Amino acid sequence: MPAATVRGWLRRAAGRLEAIRIWFMQVAVTVGVDVAIPDGSGCAWRDVLAAVELATAAIRGRFGSVGLLGAVTPPQVVVAASGGRLLAPGWPAVGGATPIAPDAAQG
User: Fold this and answer.
1) CA distances from 106 to 8, 51, 75, 101 (A)
2) Which residues lie closer than 8 Å to 47 by C-beta, 6 or more apart?
3) CB–CB of 52/78 below 8 Å?
């Protein structure tokens, strides 16, 4: 990846760290059982990573470490829970959207 591309990703993520953290906490609470919300670390980046790890652990706890389609990893959780749009403009939607797949709401 070109350095400018990665810098752009980091800039975009930095502008929405709290929204990302909240999104993955919601995923963890929605999927998990008795989820213990971690205290803040004082670093927004570490708090996002903790939220992603918490969501990953909740999914593994619900479906097993292999899940339905293979190993459940934090990168896979990020892509699946964000619909692959983590860095897309306007994500997450404003107005209390819930972290579910778009097709699940139509079911």
Assistant:
1) 34, 27, 26, 10
2) 17, 21, 40, 41
3) yes
Please check whether residue 87 is in contact with residue 11, taking contact to mean a CB–CB distance below 8 angstroms.
Answer: no
Could you report the per-residue pLDDT of 60-100, keeping only the tens digit for each? Answer: 888 888 766 778 899 999 999 998 998 888 887 655 555 55
Q: How confident is the model at residue 102 (pLDDT cuts 50, 70, 90)?
A: very low
Task: Give me 8's structure tokens.
Answer: 């752009």
Is 36 in contact with 8 (CB distance < 8 Å)?
no
Q: Which residues of 66-76 are buried (b: 16+ CB within 10 A; e: fewer)?
A: ebeeeebeeee
Residue 14 token pair: 């930095």
Helix 74-82 with 17-31: angle, nearest 10 deg:
100
